UniProtKB/TrEMBL annotation:
Species name: Dyadobacter chenwenxiniae
PROSITE patterns noted in UniProt: GNAT (PS51186)
Record Gene3D superfamilies: 3.40.630.30
Signal peptide: none
The name this protein goes by in its record: GNAT family N-acetyltransferase
Database matches in InterPro entries: Acyl_CoA_acyltransferase, GNAT_dom
All copies of domain N-acetyltransferase, residue ranges: 13-182
Superkingdom classification of source: Bacteria
MF-aspect GO terms: acyltransferase activity, transferring groups other than amino-acyl groups
Taxonomic placement: Bacteria, Pseudomonadati, Bacteroidota, Cytophagia, Cytophagales
Amino acid sequence: METRFEIRNSEFLLMKLDYPERLDEMGALRVLAWKDEQGISQDFFSHNAWLDDEDLLAHHWVILHNKEIVAAARMSFHNDYQSIPHADLFDGSILESYGTGPYASLNRLVVAPGFRGNGFSALLDEARIQYAATHGVRLIIAQPVASRIKPLEDLGFLYLGKIRPLYQMPERQIYFMIKELANNL
């Protein structure tokens, strides 16, 4: 899947990557974009890249500008709630009224500081939601920061509460949201 678009006379490309293409670049972008954010661990973000085991199993989307990754996001699929990244930081019993998976989890959305404000987060969210809907997912889990709650609500996510902070971002509040996919295609 590739989508070309233009913003202020600059061309961009939204694409889903084939595994394990460009993981190191995405990990480096995460550090670049988040290292100076309020509430993060300076020790953790002193590394060159932020990658974890889930990156090897997940699906990844990027937005390229002049062949450089300027935004990225991942989504992983899960048969049970316990295998979702950071599931231990939120009371999964709250999900009982929604039934069981399969689940998709949206995470690691990042936009390079110089490219923020162009709607890249929305484009990456929509691409991941569409992909989940066409691959048998019933429920999508998101664990956003406060500034992402409203955009996700606009896409049909429901706010369910706060989760305990991640050790990488000990002073940054993370929230828990869910979206039911009614019609899998």
